[in-house]
Amino acid sequence: MAILFVSDIDDPVAWRRELEKRLGPLDFRVWPEIGDAAEIDVALVWRPPRGLLASLPNLRAILALSAGIETLLEDRSLPDVPLCRMVDESLVVTMREFVLAAVLLYHRDLDRYEAQQRRAVWHMRPPRPASATRVGVMGLGALGRPVAEALRDFGFTVRGWSRTPKEIEGVACFAGRGALAAFAGGCDVLVNLLPLTPETEGILNAGLFAALPRGAVVINVGRGRHLVDADLIEAVDSGHLRGALLDVFREEPLPEDHPFWRRPNIRITPHVAAYTLPESAAEVVAENLRRLSAGRPLLHVVDRMRGY
Ligand code: NAP
Ligand code: GLV
After folding, report:
1. How many whole angstroms separate alpha carbon 290 and alpha carbon 225?
2. Cα–Cα dist 130/41, whole Å
3. Identical topology for domains 2-88+276-294 and 89-268
4. H helix and E strand count, the chain
C-alpha cells in the first residue's frame, strides 16, 4: 500500500517512524516527491494543494492530519472516497490545556494586571471563586466535550451548545439555533470549538456578541471564518466585550497590517491551541490503514452532507 504524506507543518520523518513501528516497512512518499501517481492508495494530509488529490487516479482513502477538514471539503475536485478526520488524545490534551490557560487568564485578571503594568499601577483585585465565572463552550464534540468537562472539574460554571441535544453531568446543555441567544446570555467567557461549515461560518458576529453579558470575553480556537472580524473590533472598542483571545484567523499567518495586532485587548496566538502528535495519533491512522487493507469500515469518516 503506497501512502502520500502532504503537510507543510507536520514532520514526515516522525510520522513514517511512528507508522512503521505499528505496521512494518511502508511505501511512504512525501509530497511533492510522488513517484507514479497511479500507485498511491492513501493520502495523509494537512491542507493539500487544491486539485492534488484528484490527480491520484487510484486513491482509496483520504486521512486528515487535522480535526477540521473544511479546506478539503471546499476542494470541488475532492475524490469521492472515504475522508477521515483526526480524532486523537494528543489533540484533546493540548486543546484542554490551552482553553484552561486562556479561561484562567481572564478569571484571575491577568489581562487587567498586564494593562496596569503598562501604566505602573499597583492595584489588587480580590480573586473570585471559579464558580463565579460562567464559561460557555460552542461545540460539544471530540474536543468541546472534554474541554467543557475539564472546566467543570476545575470549578467553573459551565454550559455548552451543540447542534443535537447532549447530556453532560454538571454542564448545562443547549442545542440548536433557537437556543443560541439563551446560551450566550449566561457566558462570561465564550469558547468556540465548532467545525467550520456553511451553518457555522460567521457565527461569532455582532448579534451573538450583543447576546453576551457586558464585559464578556471571546476565545476562538475553532476557525478564523467563524468570526466576523469587524464585529469583534466594534464590540471590543465599544467596551461591550472585555477582550478576545484568538488562535485562528481568516488568513494565516495573520497579515502584519491586520487591526487585531494593534488592539491591546485582543490576544493572538499563531494557530497553536491543539497539536496532532504522531507519537499518539499514528495509532488511529495505523488502525485505518489496517481496516482499509481488510476491507473494513474506517474510523471517523466525515459526513460530507453535514460538513463535519
Ligand atoms: P467534532 O467532534 O466534529 O464536534 C463538533 C461539535 O460541533 C459537535 O458537538 C457538533 O454538534 C457541533 N456543531 C456542528 N455544527 C453545529 C451547528 N450548526 N450548530 C451547533 N453545533 C454544531 O469536532 P472536534 O474534533 O471537536 O473539532 C472542532 C473544531 O475545532 C475543528 O473542526 C477545528 O475547526 C477546531 N480545531 C482547532 C484547533 C486549533 O489548534 N485551533 C485544533 C483542532 C481543532 P453535534 O454534537 O450535535 O453533532
Ligand atoms: C487544527 O486546527 C485541526 O483542525 O486539527
Report:
1. 35
2. 50
3. yes
4. 9, 12
Is the separation of the CB atoms in 185 and 213 below 8 Å?
Answer: yes
In this structure, which ligand is nearest to the CA of 70? Answer: 1
| C-alpha span between 140 and 148 (Å, rounded) | 8
Quick check: CB of 216 below 6 Å from ligand 2?
A: no
Q: What residue type is assigned to position 145 of the chain?
A: R
Say yes or no: CB of residue 88 within 6 Å of ligand 1.
Answer: no
How many Å is the Cα radius of gyration of the chain? Answer: 21
Where does 2-88+276-294 sit in CATH, by number? 3.40.50.720
Cell numbers 511502508 label which residue?
A: 26
What are the tens digits of pLDDT across the range 26-59? Answer: 999 999 999 999 999 999 999 999 999 999 999 9
**Which residue has the least CA distance to atom 1 on ligand 2?**
66
The yes/no answer on whether domain 89-268 falls in CATH 3.40.50.12780 is no
| pLDDT, tens only, 123-161 | 999 999 999 999 999 999 999 999 999 999 999 999 999
Confidence at 200, pLDDT banded by 50, 70, 90: very high
- Three-state DSSP at 168 gives strand
Domain ranges of the chain: 2-88+276-294, 89-268
Cell numbers standing for residue 171: 454542564
**The pLDDT value given to residue 245:** 98
pTM of the model: 0.98
- The residue type at 238: S
Report the alpha-carbon distance of residue 97 to residue 79 in Å, rounded: 36
Q: Can 159 be counted among the known catalytic residues? A: no
For residue 85, report the distance from its CA to the centre of ligand 2, in Å.
9
∠ Cα 234 237 240 (to 5°): 85
Neighbours of 168 (CB within 10 A): 18
CA dihedral (114, 117, 121, 125) in degrees, to 10, reads 30
